[in-house]
Amino acid sequence: MKKRLITTGLLLTTFGVIAKPQTITLEVPTMNCPVCPITVTKSLEKVNGVTDVEVKFEERLAKVTFDDEMTNTKALIDATTNAGYPSLVKE
Ligand SMILES: [Cu+2]
Question: What's this model's pTM, rounded to 2 decimal places?
Fold first, then answer.
């Protein structure tokens, strides 16, 4: 996780900028039909600080980009869980 943070920082070369965009991938194993990704995407987009959501239905994955000053992994997991789709961070 720390390694990924450093890589992101280097790519953006945004030293001194407060916002630190982070990307995580969540596993959402209970997505079982083509409508599920829509619900999951909406639940994540509603979280303050989320800037991008990319759900892959076939792989049951949700890639989320967010500002880690505004939200965190737990809030993202809570968002999908509250929408009916428990998720966990993909290692
Ligand atoms: Cu469905």
Answer: 0.78
